[in-house]
Amino acid sequence: MSVYTEVERDDLSAFLGEYAVGDLVSYQGISDGIENTNYFVTTSEGEFVLTLFEQHDFDELNYFLEVMTFYYQHGIPSAHPAADKQGHYLKKLCGKPAALVLRLQGRGVDTLATPAQCAAIGDVLGEMHLAGRDFDYRRPSERGHEWRRQTALHLLPKLDEAQATMLKNELAVQAGYEELDLPWGVTHSDLFRDNALFDGDELKGIIDFYYASDEYLLYDLAVAVNDWCVDESGLPEPSRYRALMQHYMAKRALTESEQANWNLVLRAAALRFWLSRLEDKLFPREGELTQIKDPDAFLKLLQHHRDHPLTLDFD
Fold first, then answer.
1. How far is Cα 293 from Cα 296, in angstroms, rounded to an integer?
2. pLDDT tens across 27-73, in order?
């Protein structure tokens, strides 16, 4: 959510004129995140988030908007795209695909999560996975096993000897990832603390569905655990982990295969974000307000999962 494309006021006013949302009052770029250009937009009729998509085409984006609409219609607290006067969710602004989304109340969690917040995330993620059984659209993951393998090979020459050895070993361990017998379906795949809005411990909504894709449901859970359930050192913390997992499993019990492969999928999720952050750091894109997140946080977490597998025994 960095600002790569600067939007002039006159262009934004003309864009908003195609919606029934009133007149532009103010707007400002959002610096959190790294993939798309985002602005907070205030009009005489309400508050919105404007997203200009830097890496996706119209066909892909229709999928994301379908996901958002589906969850909204199934009672999941989530961002909902606004339609223009012709009923279209997706338009073009500054030469980029663009969408206007109703801004939810609450704030992203920019500190360590509380156990109550972790419980809320486990609960809503379980609901999302149950509801997603009825979602008819398909989209393969763009950051799945093959992406991780190719990106690792690209980055290996940039690593020191110890990291390179560890990465090669991890690729070998995860070589059979795509053949695991695990339940799969539509996933958020990026449910970090800045992609859920809270008022205190009350969940107000899930946002940023632009990595949604078909994946193992366990991977979606692993992504959430790796971000929400850590302490000040960035490593798993028992009370947060227990709260998220127990509330998730109260909605959807894990299969025997999921239980057996939990550590491997946690490692795959940690690897994905170590590699993507490392790529952003070593090969940054230009933007007005860019944020490069620390890849070492996920390297540390990956190494921890390799040495200290998390248990699923909460008694």
1. 9
2. 999 876 567 899 999 999 999 999 999 888 887 888 999 999 999 99
The number of helix segments (H) and strand segments (E) in the chain equals 10, 10
**Structural fold of domain 108-307:** Aminoglycoside 3'-phosphotransferase; Chain: A, domain 2 (3.90.1200)
108-307 and 9-103 share a CATH fold: no
pLDDT at 197 over 60: yes
* Cβ neighbour number for residue 95 with a 10 Å cutoff: 8
Q: How confident is the model over 10-27, as pLDDT tens digits?
A: 999 999 999 999 999 999
Question: CATH class for domain 9-103?
Answer: alpha beta
The tokens describing 179, both together, are 């053949």
83-99, pLDDT tens digit by residue?
Answer: 999 999 999 999 999 99
Q: Check if the beta carbon of residue 45 is closer than 8 Å to that of residue 10.
A: no
Which of 116-125, 189-198, 286-295 has the least mean pLDDT? 286-295
Nearest to 68 by CA among 78, 54, 60: 78
224 within 8 A of 117, measured Cβ to Cβ: no
Per domain, the residue ranges of the chain are 9-103, 108-307
236 touches 310 (CB < 8 A): yes
| Dihedral sign for Cα atoms in the order 135, 68, 31, 19 | positive
